[in-house]
From TrEMBL:
Domain of life: Eukaryota
Protein name: Hexosyltransferase
Native organism: Aphis craccivora (Cowpea aphid)
Biological process annotations from GO: protein O-linked glycosylation
Cellular-component GO terms for this entry: Golgi membrane
């Protein structure tokens, strides 16, 4: 009897333990499903009711992309929460002339080698300017001044150039575009470690989009359902007071973004009155894009990392933008491969929605 009692007790313990494990697994599954659903709901909510872009034709070019006079008299010298902003170095390369595309490159004052690599390669085909803040060294600043005297392609704002000021830099790019290059059909924002496949980009803009431009275009490589980093070990750590939500909205990887000028105007005017958040990609192409009802168009495989094409000798029509790990060393090498005359690779099959958003 004692043995039977012990056996029944052990069996009950085993069943109870199994029940606890099952409940634990159920809870884990429930939590996982809730996590997945919260991400899906976040994506759906951020895109609800958004307006897709349209390309312009002779028949539908009826108005300017924005009206500069709608900005306040004090707007030029204010930058978000900086009330006395000024361009320390400025350029007027557009001079009210129409440009198909102008490249606006985020750079740091000390990145001379990367800027020179771009000047020697794809900037020969696309008008290009380099945007930066102030360095913490007088020597570096003097070098920047000398460099600009030689190339006349640097725009510098009077804020310190650092990670926490990236949003100032991004919105400064918008400000410069609106005030000094309002006639550009497309604006390409890149980082200084981005290789632009200029021949293929010009083909895309002229023939698969439109040489007359577009409206509501924000084209980039998308990041979906990204969780906010809270770890103190991450340089991208964000506190709850800075950003209380658990997930970021869908946003663009900032190293290659194509804007239409009306989108720049919408994002700029909203950014000027929105509390500052330092991760510019999330803030501008995510949070503010949602507020302005702008849908991002995914570049998909037309935006690649260097590792994707490192050993490929036929790349001239395989990507638009490539993020390089050592741009100052590899930019020229990849550019020479792009310009190979015997490159016969067919065009990428990515359609970017370019065949379905024509408004005639």
């Amino acid at each position: 009897m004692v043995k039977q009692s012990i056996g029944r007790r052990n069996a009950m313990i085993v069943r109870l333990y199994s029940l606890i494990l099952s409940l634990g697994s159920l809870s884990l599954i429930t939590f996982s499903l809730w996590s997945v659903w919260s991400k899906i709901a976040n994506v759906d909510e951020s895109h609800a009711g958004h307006v897709e872009y349209r390309i312009l034709t002779i028949e539908n070019v009826t108005s300017k992309p924005f009206e500069l006079h709608s900005l306040s008299d004090t707007d030029l010298h204010s930058l978000i929460d900086l009330p006395s902003f000024n361009f320390n170095i400025n350029q007027n390369v557009c001079d009210n002339n129409t440009k198909l595309v102008v490249a606006l490159v985020h750079t740091a004052p000390g990145h001379y080698a990367k800027r020179q690599a771009i000047r020697d390669t794809w900037a020969k085909m696309i008008p290009t300017l380099f945007f930066m803040g102030l360095p913490d060294s007088n020597v570096t600043q003097n070098n920047v001044i000398l460099e600009n005297q030689l190339y006349s392609d640097i725009v510098q704002g009077d804020f310190i150039d650092c990670y926490r000021n990236l949003t100032y830099k991004h919105v400064m790019v918008f400000k410069w575009t609106l005030y000094y290059c309002p006639c550009a059909r497309y604006l390409l924002k890149t980082d200084d470690d981005t290789l632009v496949n200029a021949p293929y980009l010009l083909e895309i803009l002229n023939h698969r989009l439109s040489p007359l431009g577009a409206r509501n275009l924000l084209m980039c490589q998308l990041i979906l359902s990204s969780m906010v980093k809270r770890s103190y070990r991450s340089k991208w750590r964000v506190s709850y007071s800075e950003y209380p939500n658990r997930w970021y909205p869908t946003y663009c990887r900032g190293w290659a973004i194509v804007y239409s000028p009306d989108v720049i105007y919408k994002l700029y005017t909203e950014a000027q009155v929105t509390p500052y958040f330092w991760i510019d990609d999330v803030h501008i192409t995510g949070t503010i894009a949602v507020k302005q009802n702008i849908t991002q168009t995914d570049l998909a495989e037309l935006a690649v990392d260097e590792s994707d094409v490192r050993d490929d000798k036929n790349i001239s029509r395989k990507f638009l933008f490539c993020l390089l790990s050592e741009a100052d060393q590899s930019m020229r090498k990849f550019w020479n491969i792009i310009l190979q005359p015997d490159d016969t690779v067919v065009s990428s099959s990515t359609n970017l929605g370019l065949d379905i958003n024509v408004d005639t």
